[in-house]
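re: ur question from yesterday

yeah so i grabbed the chain u mentioned. its 567 aa long if i counted rite. heres the sequnce exactly as i have it in my notes:
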Amino acid sequence: MMAAPRLRVASGFASDIGHRDENQDFAAACLEDLPRHHGLVAAVADGVGGAKGGRVAAELTVRSFIDDYLSQSDALPPRKTAARALESINHWLHVQGTKDAKLKGMSAVFTGVVVKGHRMHSFHVGDTRLYRLRDGQLSLLTKDHKPEGAEDSHYITRAIGMEESVRIDYRVHDVAIHDRILLSSDGVHGPLKMAYMTDVLNARAAPDETARKLVADALAAGGTDNATALVIDIVDLPPTTLEDLDAVFASLPIHDPPKVGEMVDDFKLESILSDSDYSRVFRARDTKEHRAVLLKFPRQDTIGSEATARAAFAREAWVATRVHHIFIGAVLTLPPKRQTRLYIAQPFYEGETLEKRLLRAPVPLAEGLEIALKLAKAIAALHRAGIIHRDIKPENIILTPDGGLKLIDLGVARLPHLDTAREMDHVPGTASYRAPEMFDGNSGDEQTDIFALGVTLYRMFSGGSYPYGEIEPFVRPRLGKAEPLTAKRQDVPAWLENLIRTAIAPDPDERFQDGFELAYQLENGALSTASVPARRETWARRNPEKLWQAISLLLFLALLVVGLGRL
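ran it thru and got these C-alpha cells back, copy pasting raw so excuse formatting
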C-alpha cells in the first residue's frame, strides 16, 4: 500500500529596517511534524507606528499566536484555538500598554494563517496582508482596517492590543498544490503595484529569494518603512479530510441528473453506466485532461434531503482518500473552482464487472483463485484503514484487461469511529450479500464484510448461484445450511470449500475475523492441496437432536438421583 501524502511546504522570508531607526516587523512560520496534525502556522506582524513597544508587540503577537496554537489539541478547530490565542495576547498587550508608561499604546497589526488539510484559515487585524498566487493570478485575501475614505493613509482602526477587545477577521480559503502564499507588511505592498508583485511571484524563484526581491524592490521603489515578506509554496497536501469535503460539498447545488451528450464542467457525458434509485453514473470524457472518467450524480427526487445527499457524497469521496491500494478504486480531486454542482469524479477503469464475467462463462479455478486473493487483499487494506465497505458484491468489482482488479463504490462505507450522526438510517448493502446480524441492527463490521466476500466467492465459483438463495430486501432471512460448492462443480478443492463455508457462516463468531485472516488462508491454501483449517462448527450446532437427547438424559439422571435420595 502506498504511503499517503502529507502537507509539505517550502518557505522563506526577508525583512529590512528601511529608513527607520528600528525594525518593528516580525514574521515566523512553523510546520509541525507528524504524528500531530496542527498543520502549518505562519504569521507577520508590524508594530503600530508612533506607539512605544511596537517591536515587542509584534514579536509577542506572532510568537504567542504560533506557540499557543501548537500547544492546544490538534482535534480542536483552528478558528477556536487560534482566535483564543489572539484574544489572550490582545488582553495582555492592552493591559501592559495602560500600566507601563514605557509601553504606552503598544500594539501591532497582524495577519496569520493556519493551513490544515486542504483549507487555509486566516486571522487578520490591521493593514498587514495575505495574498495567494494561483494559476498565474494574484488575489488579495484580506481587507485593510483603515478609516473610510482614508484607505491610502497610514491610519488604522484595528490592531492587537489597541483596545480591550479585538475584532478579528476570520476567513477560510481553499488551498491547492502549487499555490504560493504571501504574507507582507505595508512596507512591501505599499510601494509596489499589484501587477509587479504578481510578476515577481510568478517568476517562481525560491521562496527566500522571492521574499528578498520583494523587500529590496519595495525599498528601491521609494519605500521608507520596515519591509517584510514571508513566501510559502504549497508543495504537497495530505489526503482530504471529511471536514474539507463537507465544506466544499455544502456550497455545491444539487440539480436533476444530466443526460448523455451534455457538458458538465468540461466533462462530456458519453454514456450511462448505471441508473439506480439514488444516483446516475456516466462514463465521461475530461476535455481538459484528455482522459476517461466516471461521474456519479445524485438523484434529487429519491436521495432524500439535500443534507443527506451531501453527507453521503462527502463520505464516499473522503473514504476513498483514506486508503491507497492497487486493488481499490480511487476518487479524483478536481482543481478548486472547477466543480459547479454536486457529483463525484473517479478514474474510469476499462474492463468488466465480476458479475458480467461470472455470468458470461464459468470462471476457471486458477483464474478464480487469483481474483479471490486480490479481492481479499483489497478488503484487508480497507480493514487496516478502519473502513468497512458494506456493499461487497460482483457488481462492485471491476476486472481490468491487464489482469488487475478494482473494488469500487464506497458510497455506504463505514468508519466505526465516525460520528454516529452520520450513520445511515437504513440497512446498507444488497440483501443477498448482507450478513444475518445486519438485519438485526448491526451497522456493519469486519465480519459482515467477510460474509459478503464469501457470498461473492461462492457465486463466482458456482456460476452465479447464491449459497442461501436470493434474499428479498427488508425480509429477515433464516439461513439454513448452504448447498455445498462441490455440488456445483467438481474441481473445487476441499480447502477452498472449507474457506468459503467459514466466510459465509451464519454465526459471525465462526467466520474469519477480518480480511487479513481470510487473505492469509486463501494465499496459503492456493499454495497447498492441504485443507485450510476452517472454523469447525461446534458439536452442538452439528448435532442439535443429539444435544437435546443428551440434555434430557442428564436431566432424567439428575431427577432419578434426587428421587432415590428421598427413599
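noticed a couple things. The domain at 8-236 is CATH 3.60.40.10 (Phosphatase 2c; domain 1). also The longest strand covers residues 227-236.
anyway ttyl
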